[in-house]
Amino acid sequence: xxxxxxxxxxxxxxxxxxxxxxxxxxxxxxxxxxxxxxxxxxxxxxxxxxxxxxxxxxxxxxxxxxxxxxxxxxxxxxxxxxxxxxxxxxxxxxxxxxxxxxxxxxxxxxxxxxxxxxxxxxxxxxxxxxxxxxxxxxxxxxxxxxxxxxxxxxxxxxxxxxxxxxxxxxxxxxxxxxxxxxx
Length: 183
What we know:
- This protein has six helices and five strands.
- The protein has helices spanning about 15-25, 45-70, 80-90, 120-130, 140-155, 170-180; strands at about 1-10, 30, 75-80, 110-115, 160-165.
- It has a five-stranded parallel beta sheet with strand order 2-3-1-4-5, with helices on both faces.
- β2, α2 (about 45-70) and β3 form a beta-alpha-beta unit.
- The relative contact order is 0.21.
């Protein structure tokens, strides 16, 4: 069975850090697919441009994923179905990824590994630790996003949430991911 392993989760939770750590590890018959977000318009300023860009981007991703499964049994990437559902719901916009799922090969199992903060306080403390001065979400927005992720992950078979505290190390996340995905 081919497996598409998607690292999902809250902004600044460590998805890209985990992906960069995975690049440096020999994983059996696995391709680490790093997204190229070049040219990504800001949704809050250029909604039509963003949606046009997103449709093209998802089509390219689906085509690339299908090609990669000609050579690999596992493809790991960030943000796909669940993130699109969360942010489409949050911003009341069209759900884009779902339109392209029927173009994915039929022999693919999708596994979601979701990184969420344990609490709003952990999120704020983590931002201070990594020296991010801009807080994107208030308490209510944070809880809404976290709840959307939780609900969608719980509905997805073969998916897992890893809760991050402010002091969770990247090694803890890495070990949990490897143990879960390559058990």
